[in-house]
C-alpha cells in the first residue's frame, strides 16, 4: 500500500472523533463523514466537535468534512466506520460508491442488528468487499484518554498484514502504540462481547456486589469469551492479549462506560426501557447481548456462557436481576 | 480428615481477622494466635480486633485466643498462617511444637525474605512438613469485603484433594464460595507476584498514565505471571482462573491495596524510604519484587519479565520511575 493513501472516518461520536485526531497526527488530509449538518458547521466554525471530545481542537485545513457519505467514500482509499451498530445498516444503505477495491475498517463496537453479522461479514456479504480488504481496530482505548493524549495501545487486525501495518502506521503517534494481528473475526467478536460483560459488571455493582465478585466475574468473562470466539473461529490466539483481555478490562472496570452504567441502572431496579430513556441512548451491549444469544442458539453444541445468558435473561426475558445473579454466582468459580 | 479437626489462625491483621470470621461460621471453636497482648485483651473485652476489621464482632466463647504460638499450634490440627511475610521467619522461630503431622496452610502473601522460599517450601525444608500436608488459601478476596459479608470466592490448593476440600468446607458460607486446586506452588507464586503488579499499577497511576494503559499493563502482567510460574512449576493450569487472574485484578485495580498505594507514592516522586515511612508499614510487594528478581536471576534461561524488572529497577536500583516506565511502555503490547 502506498503512503499516499487517503483515510476517512465515518461517524462523529467520541470514538470517531478520537480516530480522526489520531489520523491528523500523520495524514496531510483526513476525510470525515458525519450525518449532522449542525455538527459539520460547528466543527468548521469552532474547530471542535460540539458533542464529543470537545476539548480536541482540529486544524480545519486538514479535514475534508462532508454530510454526503458517497463524497467521502469516493474520496478515500481507507474507510474507517465508527457509527454505532444500531445505525450502521441504515447509514450504509446510502452508499452507492463501489467500495470493493477500498480498504474497509470496522471500529464499530457490535454486530449489525438487522443481519446479525459482524461488520466485516456485512461488508463482505452485502458489499462484496474481499476479506483481505477488511480490517478491524480494537482497543483497549477510551476515546476520552486519546483526547488527553494519554498513552494507549491499539490492535489492527487484517488478513493482509501489509494493510494492517499501513493502518497501524497511520494511527501511531507519541501517545498511540499499535500492533497488528491476523485475527479479524476474533477481535471483532471480542469488541462486541466485552460490552455485554461490562453490562454484567454494572448489574453486579448495582445489586451491591463488591470488588471481590467483580474480579471473579471478569476472570470468568475472559474464559467465556475465549470459548465463544473459539467456537466461531478456531485459530491460535492468546486471549490475554490487549485486544481481548485488555479491552475487556478497560470497559468492565470503567465507571464511564455507557454499558456498565446501563447495567448499573438495571441492577438498581430500573426497567430496561426506563434505563434507556434515562441515558437517552442505547448501550451497544444491549444489542450485542441479543446477537450473542442468537449466535449461540445456532450452535449445534452450545457454548457454556453463563454470564451472557444471565444478562440476556434480564434484558430480554424480564427476569429479576437479583435472582438471576444469585443463580449466576453459583456457576462462577 | 475428620470433621472434628480443630482450626487455628496465626496472625491478627485484616486478612487473619477475616479468616477467623469465616471459620467462626462453621467451627465450634477457633484457635487464634496473636503476638500483641493488647490486641488479645481488647478482643476479649470488646469482642473485636482493635486495629483491623473492627466492625466484625466475635463471640469470644468461640475463640481460643493466646499470645503463645506453641499453645495454639499444639491445640489445632489445621494451622493457618497469616503473618506478613516480613515477620513470618521470626514468628516461626518461636515454634517448638512438632507440626509434621498437622496440616499447615499458608495465607501469607509473599516469600520468606530470609530464605527466598515460598512458605510451603519453608515449612517443608525447615519444619519437615510433608508436601501433602501443605495447603494455600488464595483469593481474590479483600478482607474488608469479607467483613461486609460481600460474596467472595476462595481457592484452596493442596496436593491432597481431601484436605483441600476439608479446608474449603471450613471456610465456606453464604458469602464465601470455595473451589479446590492441586496447584500449590502456582497459586503461592500468583499470590506473591500480584503484589508486584499492583505496585506497577500504582507507579503508573502516580506517573499520570490512565485507564487505557492500566488495562494493557494488566494484560501484560497476566502473561508475564504465566511465564514466570510455568518456569518454576510446569503443569496444566488455566492462568485465567480466579486464583490467578481474579486475584491479580482485585489487587491491581483496588484503590485500597497497600501495594498499589505504595507504588502510587513512588510514581508521584516519593523515595522508597519516605513512601514506607509515610505508610508506616512495608508493602508485601516490596519484598516480593526482590525475591522474584532473585528467582529469575537463578534461572538458566531467564524469563522475560518486563514489568517486574521495571519495578525492581525503581525500588532497588534507584532508577527514575518516569524513565523506567517509558522504557517499559515500549515493551508492552
- C-alpha-based Rg of chain A, rounded: 19 Å
Would you count the extended β strands of chain A for me?
A: 10
* N-C termini distance of chain A: 47 Å
Name the strands of the widest sheet of chain A in spatial order.
3-2-1-4-5-8-9-10
Task: Return the CATH class of the largest domain in chain A.
Answer: Alpha Beta
Residues in helix, % of chain A: 40-55%
CATH superfamily of the largest domain in chain A: NAD(P)-binding Rossmann-like Domain
- Order of helical and strand elements of chain A: EHEHEHEHEEEHEHEHEHHHHHHHH
Which CATH architecture of the largest domain in chain A would you pick? 3-Layer(aba) Sandwich
Most extensive protein-chain contact, per-chain counts: A-B, 42 and 42 residues
Q: How confident is the prediction overall: mean pLDDT of chain A?
A: 95
Strand content of chain A: 5-15%
- Tell the overall outline of chain A: globular
Quaternary structure annotation:
homodimer
Under CATH, the topology of the largest domain in chain A can be stated as: Rossmann fold
Number of domains of chain A: 2
Pairing-aware structural class of the strands and helices of chain A? alpha/beta
Describe the largest sheet of chain A.
8 strands, mixed
| Tally of DSSP helical segments of chain A | 15
Amino acid at each position: 500500500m502506498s503512503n499516499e493513501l487517503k483515510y476517512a472516518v465515518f461517524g462523529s461520536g467520541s470514538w470517531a472523533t478520537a480516530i480522526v485526531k489520531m489520523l491528523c497526527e500523520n495524514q496531510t488530509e483526513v476525510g470525515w463523514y458525519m450525518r449532522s449538518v449542525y455538527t459539520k458547521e460547528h466543527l468548521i466554525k469552532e474547530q471542535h466537535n460540539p458533542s464529543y471530545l470537545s476539548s480536541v481542537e482540529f486544524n480545519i485545513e486538514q479535514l475534508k468534512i462532508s454530510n454526503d457519505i458517497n463524497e467521502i467514500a469516493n474520496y478515500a482509499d481507507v474507510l474507517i466506520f465508527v457509527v454505532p451498530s444500531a445505525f450502521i445498516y441504515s447509514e450504509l444503505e446510502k452508499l452507492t460508491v463501489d467500495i470493493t477495491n477500498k480498504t474497509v475498517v470496522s471500529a464499530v463496537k457490535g454486530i449489525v442488528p438487522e443481519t446479525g453479522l459482524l461488520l466485516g461479514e456485512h461488508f463482505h456479504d452485502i458489499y462484496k468487499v474481499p476479506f483481505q480488504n477488511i480490517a478491524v481496530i480494537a482497543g483497549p482505548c477510551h476515546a476520552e484518554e486519546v483526547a488527553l493524549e494519554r498513552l494507549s495501545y491499539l490492535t489492527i487486525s487484517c488478513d493482509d498484514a501489509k494493510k494492517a501495518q499501513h493502518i497501524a502506521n497511520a494511527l501511531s503517534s507519541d501517545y498511540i502504540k499499535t500492533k497488528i494481528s491476523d485475527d479479524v473475526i476474533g477481535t471483532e467478536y471480542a469488541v462486541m462481547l466485552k460490552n455485554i460483560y461490562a453490562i454484567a459488571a454494572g448489574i453486579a455493582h448495582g445489586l451491591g456486589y463488591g470488588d471481590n465478585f467483580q474480579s471473579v466475574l471478569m476472570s470468568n468473562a475472559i474464559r467465556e469469551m475465549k470459548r465463544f470466539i473459539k467456537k466461531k473461529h478456531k485459530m491460535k490466539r492468546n486471549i490475554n492479549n490487549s485486544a481481548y483481555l485488555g479491552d475487556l478490562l478497560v470497559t468492565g472496570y470503567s465507571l464511564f462506560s455507557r454499558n456498565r452504567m446501563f447495567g448499573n441502572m438495571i441492577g438498581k431496579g430500573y426497567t430496561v426501557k426506563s434505563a434507556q430513556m434515562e441515558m437517552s441512548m442505547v448501550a451497544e451491549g444491549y444489542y450485542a447481548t441479543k446477537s450473542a444469544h442468537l449466535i449461540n442458539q445456532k450452535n449445534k453444541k452450545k457454548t457454556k456462557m453463563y454470564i451472557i445468558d444471565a444478562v440476556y435473561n434480564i434484558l430480554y426475558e424480564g427476569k429479576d436481576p437479583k435472582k438471576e445473579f444469585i443463580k449466576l454466582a453459583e456457576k462462577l468459580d
